[in-house]
From TrEMBL:
It comes from the Bacteria. It is an enzyme of class 2 (transferase). GO terms for cellular component: cytosol. Gene3D superfamilies: Vaccinia Virus protein VP39. S-adenosyl-L-methionine binds at residues 88, 93, 139-140, 154. The keyword Ribosomal protein does not apply. This is Ribosomal RNA small subunit methyltransferase G. Specifically methylates the N7 position of a guanine in 16S rRNA. Its EC number is 2.1.1.-. HAMAP family: 16SrRNA_methyltr_G. Belongs to the methyltransferase superfamily. RNA methyltransferase RsmG family. It is found in: Cytoplasm.
C-alpha cells in the first residue's frame, strides 16, 4: 500500500501483468481451478489501476500473483464456513480474492478511506464479484452494523490491536485469520493480555500455495466457549 506519489510517472507504468513471472502459469490456473477467470480478472484490474490509485507500489507489478493474489488465497484452507469480514481491505486483499474464489460466501469488506471504498465497489462490479458488500468505516466504528463468523486482516495493525478492534465484530463461535508473515509468533506473544481479555486462544499456522513459493504465516484466533 502506498500513497499517490507515483502519479507523475503514469506513462512509464506498464499497467499489465506482463512483467509478472507467474502470469499465464499453468500452476496458477490449476491452483484456482474454476474460479481462475474471476481471480485473474481482479489481478488484471489491480495491475491496470493499482499504481495509479495508490493501492500498490510500481514494483509490485512484477509480483502481483505471488505477493498479493496467492498470498491472500493462502488463507482459504483456514477459514471455515460463514460470513467473512475483511478489515482494512484496501486494494481488496485478502477479501476480494477470497470472494472471487468462493462465490457462495458472503464477504464484507470494511475500509475507512473513501477512494479505496470506490475502488472496491468498482472492482467488484467490473469483475463480476457479486458476493461482496463494501462498508466504509474503521473496524471500531462499524460494531452496530457488521458481524462475521471469520474476520480477516492483512497489513492493517498488530495482532493485539486487531483483537481490540475486531473482537466485537465476531460472532460467538467466530475466529480471526490474520496474515502476518515472519512477525506472527512475536505478535501473538505480545497479544497475550488482549487474548485473555477477549477469551481467545491463538496459534500460528503456515500457509502455502504453489510448490517452490515461500509459505506465509497466519495467526488464527478462536473464541473459547463460555462456561
Ligand atoms: C497497508 S493497507 C493494507 C490493505 C490490504 N489489506 C492489503 O493487504 O493490501 C491498510 C489498510 O487498513 C485500513 N485501515 C487502517 N485503520 C483501520 C481501521 N481501524 N479499521 C479498518 N481499516 C483500517 C487503511 O485505510 C488501509 O486501507
Amino acid at each position: 500500500m502506498t500513497d499517490s506519489s507515483h502519479e507523475e510517472n503514469d506513462d512509464a507504468i506498464p499497467r499489465t501483468l506482463e512483467n509478472d513471472p507467474l502470469e499465464g502459469s499453468l500452476e496458477v490456473a490449476e491452483f484456482f481451478g474454476p474460479t481462475y477467470g474471476r481471480v485473474r480478472g481482479f489481478a488484471e484490474l489491480l495491475a491496470d489501476q493499482g499504481v495509479l490509485r495508490g493501492l500498490i507500489g510500481p514494483r509490485e507489478l512484477e509480483r502481483i500473483w505471488e505477493r498479493h493474489i496467492l498470498n491472500s488465497a493462502a488463507i482459504a484452507p483456514f477459514l471455515g464456513a460463514g460470513t467473512l469480514v475483511d478489515v482494512g481491505s484496501g486494494a481488496g486483499l485478502p477479501g476480494m480474492v477470497i470472494a472471487a474464489m468462493e462465490p457462495d460466501r458472503r464477504v464484507i469488506l470494511v475500509e475507512p478511506m473513501e477512494r479505496r471504498v470506490q475502488w472496491l465497489l468498482e472492482a467488484s462490479r467490473n469483475v463480476g464479484i457479486e458476493n461482496v458488500i463494501v462498508v466504509r468505516g474503521r473496524a471500531e466504528e462499524v460494531r452496530e452494523s457488521v458481524e462475521g463468523d471469520i474476520i480477516t486482516a492483512r497489513a492493517v495493525a498488530s495482532v493485539d490491536k486487531l483483537i481490540k478492534w475486531c473482537a466485537p465484530l465476531l460472532a460467538p463461535e467466530g475466529h480471526m485469520v490474520l496474515l502476518k508473515g515472519r512477525s506472527a509468533a512475536d505478535e501473538l506473544e505480545r497479544a497475550k493480555y488482549a487474548l485473555r481479555k477477549h477469551r481467545m486462544t491463538g496459534e500460528v499456522l503456515e500457509a502455502g500455495t504453489l510448490e517452490g513459493l515461500e509459505p506465509t504465516r497466519v495467526v488464527r484466533l478462536s473464541r473459547q466457549a463460555k462456561h
